[in-house]
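Changelog-adjacent note: as of this version, every example in the card shows the full chain rather than a window. The one below runs 507 residues end to end.
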Amino acid sequence: MLLIYPPVAKPCEPPPGLARLAGALREHGIECRVLDANLDGMLGLMQKEGLPRDRWTARGIRNLHGNLALVRSREGYRHFDRYKRAVMDLNRLLETAAHPTARVNLANYQQEGLSPVKSQDLLRAAEHPEENIFYPHFSGMLLEAMEKEPPAVVGVSLNYLSQAVCTFAMLGFLRQRCPGVKLVLGGGLVTSWVRKPGWKNPFGGLADLLVAGPGEKALLSLAGCDAGDVTNTCPEYGGLPLDSYLSPPVAVPYSASSGCYWNKCSFCPERAERNPYIQIPPEKAIEDIRALVHANRAVMVHLLDNAVSPALMEALTVRPPGAPWYGFSRITNTLADPEFCLALRRSGCVMLKLGVESGDQDVIDREQKGIDLEIASRALKSLRKAGISTYVYLLFGTPSETLTKARRTLEFAVRHSDAIDFLNLAIFNMPVYGPETDRLRTRPLSDGDLSLYTGFEHPEGWNRGLVRQFLDKEFKRHPAVARILRRDPPFFTSNHAPFFSASQSTF
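Full-length structure tokens:
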């Protein structure tokens, strides 16, 4: 089997979905190869011949290898201004190389005239793969892989809208050049499409199988293997170019669970899609993580769980993973305990991503977030005292929010600005389906048949335009908030933030 990760996603760590699939296949004696076409394509695009020699592009070309080396080094995260210049120069090369047929940066892809939420546009991308800006890179890579050891099955992992157009260009290329191979399409975005009510597959003539949810059993079944339980298989990153990602080598991603253990938030896609919460036993998860750290000489562990469970956190304080680590956590009473936070820090925790969401308790309660702002306040202070950085997520424009309540979020952020290292500010997107959606007046957000979100009439008139105006003209301009936002790593955001935290101590 051949497993492929398509452009464009942040090229800062190896793709965990492919590693998990590879681990399951190899454990059952199935031969497989993994190709990161995302990393290969982006590095290739940065080195495209004949780029215009304007001042900034010329600087990017001249410093390309030095900038790559800086972003891949530990020292590169000790001086934010040098790091930021290197990242912006790398991004400049991508933007210039793609112009004018596409807009490409280190985290996104948009091709002129094609929408990733329209199935007809994705099918057009498949019919004309040569129009894709990454075609010179993926065509050669795929032909070499197919000729060297022709696989019976090719699996493509599609997780983000930014990958959709390139994914279908690659599928179209494979269907044209290798008509006999079985093409399987899976990943997070595919799961969301397939689980939409009334889903009808428009890609039947292109992909032989669309997989919703974990793909291990589907691939093993195609290989004629009766797998049984494969949820506890340790991922394998062998075969991926671990030293080439744009982070200090190696940042190892790992999922200790799927779904969300809280699973009560209003408008939650996980709940709407009925994704069950499945947790790997903490002892097994720690064994896996320690094995991955040792096998890959990892300098950072990225826990990918929607929320790292309290049980796993407790286990990590008892048996540390052997490398600095970070992940997303719900705010609980445990994090408000200064002694527990110190134990987390001793385990190697350098940063926690925290969904505070709002500084207004009524908004939090009505959206069923299960957060107590008093506990959140104590948790931020305890984490700060322990030396653990925080990446705080705030959400604006929910049906429960008003301008007055949004200003309370600003007050909360300012009041805790000395305990917040990074901020993510998001505007609420209404899922196109779910139990709460039926209670609101909705309107199409786009004419795309694959869109996962819908427009809606806000009960309080707090529409997206007003929310955006508040964020741009009031929230972001407050000096305390502006200082935090200036610290955010461009494009890589929370994936690179822990390296700045760790560079001051154990990293």
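Structural remarks: The mean pLDDT is 94.
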